[in-house]
């Protein structure tokens, strides 16, 4: 009998390596610490195990894990020759995805929907940036896979995330709570619930639940800083800046984050905190830059990371770095890098030079394309906040108020109400 993963697919490897790989897969699905070491153990136990090499390459690319991505891909290609059709397709899909071509991954999932690692990769959630530029395409991939999973607790959490992106918040809450009842530490399910609370302006309840979950059932989560970021986002929305400070100092210091999470969580929070009316003594974002590392700050692996890199360069006032990012992205083979990241870097470069009116105009033109950068609505709205800041700095108070009105129509936010009041006072 061949070895099989937790969803029934054959693994061309030894029993011991298959066990280590399956543990790594479970760690990814639960968002628990250990995936990197488990996948690493799998290829130590069987250096010819193609999927072990491919999984490490994927974590290196997506999560800035300390992996030689090129070497792992080379080994995955080499050993996939002796593997099953599904495994060969899996390796090809990961290699193409890392190279900026999502089509093989999407086609692979149509044929092998229970390949949970790649299904997770395809959807921009907490673990991965996603494989498509249009959210509706990612939603369709998940919907098509639903019959293959039944009432699986992990898939319920993934579907819950899709439902909140579709603004079906009651469905998202029901699915996430059902999943958490089976697996109380289910990271994807907790993540979907966090978004449902935030997007409905349910800040007090969301904050209370998240604050207890990160110290209880979610305490072993690998991406714990992101859940702390969610709690801090509630505190920021409520205008409780001292609570934001305590959260940052105890849970979101950049040195605590894994890989790129310092940039995505700590860095984005500092940027948004600094824009908030009444903010003072906001910690220096320079430590985020140091922890993230030079390579990601000048050549981010994905458009999603590039968005955060650009915002961080703006926060440090580094117009030169934004110029370099603009030029590098303009020549990138990935179309989103060239058509969204490059002009975004240019717009934020104008802000860094205090050319705020021009920056606001450029950001307005880009607004419909920002969703192509990946991530969630809550993460991408950092660009909307930069645009509001540019309008306010350019004394275009009425236009800033219109944007803030639209945000307040979406959900309650005392922070945005204060921002709006300041704009109204100047009209």
From TrEMBL:
InterPro entries: TPR-like_helical_dom_sf, TTC38
UniProt keyword list: Repeat, TPR repeat
Name this protein carries in UniProt: Tetratricopeptide repeat protein 38
Protein family per UniProt: Belongs to the TTC38 family.
Upper taxonomic lineage: Bacteria, Bacillati, Actinomycetota, Actinomycetes, Propionibacteriales
Gene3D superfamilies: Tetratricopeptide repeat domain
Keyword match Iron-sulfur: no
